[in-house]
Amino acid sequence: MAxxxxxxxxxxxxxxxxxxxxxxxxxxxxxxxxPTSSDDAVIDTNSGTxxxxxxxxxxxxxxxxxxxxxxxxxxxxxxxVYGNLTFPSGGSFNASTSNATVTFAATTTGKTITTNGKxxxxxxxxxxxxxxxxxSALTTTGAIxxxxxxxxxxxxxxxxxxxxxxxxxxxxxxxxxSTITLSNxxxxxxxxxxxxxxxxxxxxxxxxxxxxxxxxxxxxxxLTYGTLTIGGATGISNLTISGSNTFSTLNSQKTVAxxxxxxxxxxxxxGTWSVSGSSGNPVxxxxxxxxxxxxxxxxxxxxxxxxxxxxxxxxxxxxxxxxAGTHTQLNSNVLGVxxxxxxxxxxxYVLTGGTSWTVxxxxxxxxxxxxxxxxxxxxAGSYYSAPNGAGGAxxxxxxYTKATNLTLSGSVSYAVGxxxxxxxxxxxxxxxxxxxxxxxxxxAxxxxxxVSTTTSSTGGSGGAGSTYNGGSGGSGALITVAxxxxxxxxxxxAGxxxxxxxxxxxxxxxTGSASYxxxxxxxNGGGSAGGNAIVATSSGAGGNNNAGSxxxxxxxSAGKGNPGFSGGGGSGGLGNSISTGGIGGVGTDVVGMxxxxxxxxTSGNTVPASNTSYxxxxxxxxxxxxxxxxxxxxxxxQGGIIIVYKLVGAITNFNFFAFFNGA
Length: 663
Description:
Elements: E1 3-6, E2 11-13, E3 21-22, E4 40-43, E5 50-59, E6 62-64, E7 70-72, E8 78-81, E9 85-86, E10 101-104, E11 111-114, E12 122-134, E13 138-139, E14 143-152, E15 158-160, E16 162-165, E17 171-174, E18 179-182, E19 186-190, E20 197-208, E21 216-219, E22 224-230, E23 238-242, E24 246-252, E25 258-262, E26 267-274, E27 283-287, E28 294-301, E29 308-311, E30 313-315, E31 322-323, E32 329-330, E33 334-335, E34 337-338, E35 346-351, E36 356-358, E37 368-373, E38 383-385, E39 388-390, E40 400-404, E41 411-415, E42 435-437, E43 442-444, E44 451-452, E45 457-458, E46 478-479, E47 516-517, E48 574-575, E49 640-646
Parallel strand pairs: 1-4, 2-5, 4-6, 5-7, 5-8, 6-9, 8-10, 9-11, 10-12, 11-12, 12-14, 13-15, 14-16, 14-17, 15-18, 16-19, 17-20, 18-20, 19-21, 20-22, 21-23, 22-24, 23-25, 24-26, 25-27, 26-28, 27-29, 28-30, 29-32, 30-33, 31-34
Antiparallel strand pairs: 1-3, 35-49, 36-41, 37-40, 37-49, 38-39, 39-46, 41-42, 42-43, 44-45, 47-48
């Protein structure tokens, strides 16, 4: 093993030319070298100035003490270091020229990389059996890729365009307490596969700093991280987080509207949620698949979280810990997200499945409330037998029962009512199931399915609850002339703590080529009825919640209905041909965590999506398009149970749920 010194300034460093290499600092070049992977290379104050063109250069240790203007590499330059790398802390030396790539290729451990504030361009760690520890912060203008070997950041910070794990062998990455700042858009953290990787990053911080409006992806690979900070304050963008990851903290530095997308059918675990929007700049939190839930398990959150738009998200339910703020909008298929933090010593559990609940050790027999919601009924399919036809009737909303101050211990059995099945064409909707608690001592009935024949269309009855009933479904329109279309009835809203569910609106019929629409879904308990569709004008608007908001707006041109939110019903769809039938949206949030209003009826032959919310909204009825084909009804929403108790003082649900108002 020898030590070679660069001399003569500008030159080419490859595996054959020895023109610029000497045995001593400032010595005569051309007599020895070039370095092999076993030889050390030194660039010092006697190396001259200019550019060193690296074309497949190699060395063992690379030591740079040069303070003068010398560039290590230029466009497409490549060099490999098999040992340590050390750069000077000052002067005009430059190692990040253009796209120069350095590969750390050691096959033994104990190597140190000390750049002392000098930036690199593209960095690859690819040495089978190699091991590197940072001796200073590391900055690159391009990507860092780990393929083989062990990298320990030594608790120093890293700034790079992106960080990639390329699984071709085995590797170890130890981040310690380092902060990794990623400046790229696109996939800036690429750990989609973690085959062969040993990872330690639970104390690290990763910052996504791009201000670009381009889509960003954090492919976490199901690993455990410290803090993930969504930076780039002014860049309106979408961030997709993939993998079943764990974060100690998720926060944001953004001051503009942006979107965070989580993987559906996957659980993301978050110690502290610290992402909040602001008035006019909300943060949208959704899954990557419409109608399919992404699950967030959140332990706690910072104060002041607000101005979120949430859709297709299920948060941990026992007890609820995601309090999204009073200005947050909860769209369809949301569960376990509440409006504000409960008062001290107040606990909330949500049951949407299973058959047995274990009473907590701190249960208070004299200060509790159990809220039961029956399943919503399914909407009927449309019927046709020339010349008569009927739009499908909407299903009824599930009933609501409240029980207070129950003495409970041990294991309590319960059943959650299923949503009524969606009807195929020419058939009736299925009835919603009853929800029961404490071996059937308390129950809330499911809504009835919509019933239709060729000459009649009758909405399903609202489910009976000991406290409040659900709203009945709307009826579909009738025709006696071939070639006219009819809309289906809206689903009834679920009964809730503030009153009966709103009834579903009725569908309209067409005259020749005129539009025809589905009725709107009823609002959640205490809310308003869904609107009736108006012939040749609009579909029915969704009913509002008790607070007077949340219903989906009526559709005035052919298309799909608008979803309701926060307990409002969805509007019906509007169509005037076989291709334009739409389905209404579903209400969400009877209590800050789930469904309320029913679907609006379809107005064409489009197969409606399932009512994906919770707590008893009825399904919309099927429509009958002008071609005299038929349409399916929508499914009702399942029921659920919400358990609230407090150790000391009155239960003040108004401070916790969006629309409980102390009920």
